User: What shape does this take?
Amino acid sequence: MKITLDNIEDAIEESGTFQKFKSKKKKLSASKNVSKLVSDDGSNSFTASDLEDFRDRGLLDELLHIIKSGKEATVYLGRNSEGYCAVKVYTDLRVRSFKNDNVYRQGRFIGDARAEKAIDQGSQFGLNAHQILWVSEEFRQMNFLYQEGIPVPKPIATSGIVVLMEFIGDDGEAAPRISDLDLEKYEAKDAFRQSLTILEKIVSIGRIHGDLSAYNLLWHNGKVIVIDFPQVINIERNSSAREILKRDVDSLCKSFKKHKVAADPDRIFRDMLRIIYNSGLEI
Assistant: This one.
């Protein structure tokens, strides 16, 4: 069975907002063989082999719609024999905006001295290795958090610069980000409470999300689901952990101000530090 997709160039340029799947304007109707989905200039490249790998393993049959498109990646609604799934395709590192990730890569195990040197030098080989490691880190951290019981999409597989994961939504319509919603007061307070509980759980197992805000939190059936993990860091292996945690707390509180949720970020930060120390960790 062929994986079908239409107008990949147009898809990459879609706005960064979540799309309603029922909108025919966003539906991709024409079919193309997966081998023809590689752009000539590489500006929005993902290799045919990435998707063919999923297809050959019986994990992906079709790409149906854009769920969300941004400068770093585009997420598609996919389908396989078991139903819907989410397919996150990263934009090529050479053109995407988020290139300076040194602060997040600190302390990560690469296991290849040549690759690590090439990444630091920014060579062609280094850029390719950098891209693959960044994507694989998202899958690795998502899997770790999922196994620890954190509410995240279930990771399914990764290949090249594509990550396949559980689709969060109903009947093909994606769960919205909290940032895109106009929540009732009681819902906003509950969502913030859940978000703090999630943050507590994440830091207690030695991790920091690195980009935590209402923009990376989904609201599905009254539950908060965390997304976006390539920048997740290990608290004890990153010397900037304290600063990154403080930024996460500030961003989370600031993003919930839209929903009229009042919070004291300094107090929350102190609470998180206490949880970290009580977990036997150092930051």
Remarks:
- The chain has two domains: 8-174, 178-278.
- The CA atoms of residues 20 and 273 lie 40 Å apart.
- The helical segments are 8-12, 48-56, 102-105, 113-121, 124-147, 185-204, 241-256, 265-278.
- The longest helix spans residues 124-147.
